[in-house]
Amino acid sequence: MQTAVFFHAHPDDEALLTAGTMAMLAAEGHRVVLVVATAGERGLADMPHGDELGAARMNELYASAARLGCARVVRLGYGDSGLSADGGMAEDRPDNAFIDADLEEAAQRLAAILKEETAELLTIYDPAGGYGHPDHVMVHRVGARAAEIAGTPILLEATVNRDPLLKGIRLAARFYPKLDVRAFESAYSAGSDITHRINVRKHARAKRAAMAAHATQATGGDGDRTLGAMLKIPAPIFRYVFGTEWYVRRGLPPGTRLRHPFDQPS
């Protein structure tokens, strides 16, 4: 048995990016630990921002983790930094916002968990934080430093293959001219950078259940959000669309293609 720690910014991030991998590792008998930086108390939802929303989202996180087979869930205790109207850093963020945390102090907190768990693997996000959320960028920075402190041997950046994503966005832009294609041109990771393509189709049901656990994030604003739309996809199509999860491990030879999180290049 090996231990994998999955580090995310907010509840529901794990369901969208790494749930299939988590379920797969748990089913194989590995110890899976989920760490979140914040409770997501400033996320878009049909509830006011604050402690009530944070508590609701943490309860959803525990339900998601149970469906994925996680052995432990940890919250680092930082405040959700939120987003401005243009998708940047919010000016009215709380005093303990994750984005304003001392990098070394936050990394030491995470490193303590890695050492306690004797973790062989840590997942974070790519340097851009996927789509650029400030808390996601901070996860990358804090996680990379924590792995260095703890000596965690495998550090994977959870991401999305940008190439097919961009093709889909450009196709959609023909019908929705207001769609900003440029915003996606630097999001996530180019296919040539991806080192791990994990087939998680056997665990699509668990991934879907993890998504469904985050009910507060399925709606909010002017109707269904991305998560809500994903949950409406028929099961066979869901299994195909969400049947692969992508990771980047820096420092490997160009063209490295691995199929399991614990795989090592030959």
What does this structure look like?
- Keywords: Zinc.
- InterPro entries: GlcNAc_PI_deacetylase-related (IPR003737), LmbE-like_dom_sf (IPR024078).
- This is GlcNAc-PI de-N-acetylase.
- It comes from Acrocarpospora pleiomorpha.
- The protein has 266 residues and is α/β, with parallel strands linked by helices.
- It has helices spanning 13-17, 19-27, 51-68, 103-117, 134-150, 162-175, 204-213, 226-231, 235-241, and strands at residues 3-8, 31-38, 72-78, 121-125, 154-159, 196-199, 244-248.
- It has a seven-stranded mixed beta sheet with strand order 3-2-1-4-5-7-6, with helices on both faces.
- The two termini are 21 Å apart.
- The mean pLDDT is 91.
